[in-house]
């Protein structure tokens, strides 16, 4: 089996979150979905498990933070173009999310924005010039390392 990542997120309304992630371009994997959790696939190797609070609490005794008030992670996903970055942020905002809770970043060869899902989890779609990704060109001095 190839290496994969499963991002697990607690959500307050499973159906609302499934609709949100579907609108943002994720695909539901019904084999791993029931009334307590849904597998929302981003790519062959990246799956977001959205879990009801009750399901989440079966994995840990730690309290569930309010992601609208606190930040624990920023989930960065690569996109194929600047336009795709803008499109996913627009789709997120039109389907119960919030566009640009963090300032957009445009470094010419790198472009990124952000959105929150309905529960406040922050996603950062970004595009990078393929030449920078392969090392053919160096990042500008003002980009983050």
UniProtKB/TrEMBL annotation:
Entry's Gene Ontology molecular function annotations: lyase activity
Protein name: Lactoylglutathione lyase
Gene3D superfamilies, per database record: 2,3-Dihydroxybiphenyl 1,2-Dioxygenase, domain 1
Domain VOC: 3-128
Taxonomic superkingdom: Bacteria
Pfam families in UniProt: Glyoxalase
InterPro entries tied to this protein: Glyas_Bleomycin-R_OHBP_Dase, Glyas_Fos-R_dOase_dom, VOC_core
